[in-house]
Write a structure and sequence with these properties.
This protein has about 375 residues and is of the alpha/beta class. It is built from 13 helices and 13 strands. The strands form three sheets. Strands 1-9-8-5-4-2-3-12 form an eight-stranded mixed β-sheet, sandwiched between helices. The chain binds pyridoxal-5'-phosphate. Pyridoxal-5'-phosphate binds near residues 56, 81 and 126.
Length: about 375
């Protein structure tokens, strides 16, 4: 069976993980942890990044940082992973879902303003498949209404918008290093990106269980104590060491994924031209990162048949997400503002093909042949 994903592993990680294991400090913020954070700060041009055990937890930190109170409202797409919403719902926020664009499947920036109320506190754009949301429009809305922008850039590392890295565009952003992402810190991991320097001090406290331990380690206070709400949001040094092995090869990992993505695109261009399927749209000011290759079938019936056909050919293709506003918790903690024109319809016809770092040409060609046979 051709798997849907194989976690990225370059070989570089092995020596770093061993070195971390043999070091005298394997908890968070040790040598590799700090090296990774500095790498991100340099590459993103931002004042502070903090490794977290997952993107989910980076988003939870963001919700605490902006002081979400019960019944505050947070605007986001319904076509996203549960963590985008959960992080804010956990703190009592009402989730306000807005429809997506049919081309990028990102939040439709033209529908956001109508969903804003006096209780709105933040907008959370999701850069689906590593393709940027329209951040010029979203940041302008945020400035007009005094709202926070938190980018869910779980899938966005190494992608850019108008030449700037995804994650560097809102007040804050979150990356994921889960094994299904382009880069992993040993299976699970994440990063909180702080672009607004005013958030750094409190973020460090929230991450250290609500204490000022980071200041203590830097010699800024002579003892540390409980000063605010917080939790344990540090990954171990072993996870950071694994990630470091991938950061060293960030460019080549991305180039390799893009090569597979481009080969898929080229192989199906004629089917799209013939109106048989729809391929991803990459707006001119976006450079994506080859995170995901998807195609859109005519409808749910055709997608179900294509999935079954691929399975018969020993290929595991998948789909996601069940729109959050249709899920039981989405109905309890959120509401959809306006018309669901694209969210449900697009989610029902989208299918993701296998794609991973180091995917062999033969394997890719088997997938291409099987898809083409279906549409013959
Ligand atoms: C858009 C989005 N947000 C958040 C997450 C959560 O990431 P993690 O598994 O690192 O918590 C994911 C993971 O799939 C995601 O795709």
């Amino acid at each position: 069976m051709i798997p849907f994903n194989t976690p990225p592993h370059t070989g570089n990680e092995d020596a770093h993980v061993l070195a971390a294991m043999k070091s005298s400090k394997i908890s968070g913020d040790a040598r590799y942890g700090l090296m990774c954070q500095e790498w991100f700060e340099r590459n993103l041009g931002c004042p502070k990044t903090l490794l977290t055990p997952s993107c989910t937890q980076a988003l939870e930190m963001a919700a605490i940082l902006i002081d979400i109170q019960p019944d505050d409202e947070v605007i986001m797409p319904s076509y996203t992973f549960v963590s985008t919403a959960n992080a804010f719902a956990l703190r009592g926020a009402k989730i306000v879902f807005v429809d997506i664009r049919s081309d990028t499947l990102n939040l439709d920036e033209t529908l956001i303003e109508a969903a804003i109320t006096p209780r709105t506190k933040a907008i959370v754009p999701v850069h689906y498949a590593g393709v940027a949301s329209d951040m010029v429009a979203i940041n302008a809305i945020s400035a007009r209404h005094g709202l926070f922008v938190i980018e869910d850039a779980a899938q966005g590392m190494m992608a850019t918008y108008q030449g700037k890295p995804l994650g560097s565009l809102g007040h804050m952003a979150a990356y994921s290093f889960h094994e299904t992402k382009n880069f992993t810190s040993g299976g699970e991991g994440g990063l909180l990106i702080l672009n607004d320097g005013r958030l750094i001090h409190r973020a460090e406290i929230i991450r250290e269980k609500g204490t000022n331990r980071s200041q203590f380690f830097r010699g800024m206070v002579d003892k540390y104590t409980w000063v605010d709400l917080g939790s344990s949001y540090l990954p171990s040094e072993i996870q950071a060491a694994y990630l470091w092995g991938q950061l060293e090869m960030a460019e080549s990992i991305t180039a390799n994924r893009l090569a597979t993505w481009n080969a898929y695109k080229e192989a199906f261009d004629d089917l799209e031209a013939a109106g048989r399927l729809v391929l991803p749209t990459i707006p001119g000011d976006c450079q994506h990162n080859g995170h995901m290759f998807y195609m859109k079938c005519q409808d749910l019936v055709e997608r179900t048949a294509l999935l079954a056909h691929l399975k018969q050919n020993d290929i595991l293709a998948v789909f996601h997400y069940v729109p959050l506003h249709t899920a039981p918790a989405g109905q309890k903690y959120g509401r959809f503002h306006g018309e669901d024109r694209y969210t449900t319809a697009e989610s029902e016809r989208l299918l993701r093909l296998p794609l991973w770092y180091g995917m062999e040409e033969d394997t890719r060609n088997r997938v291409i042949d099987a898809v083409r046979a279906f549409f013959k």
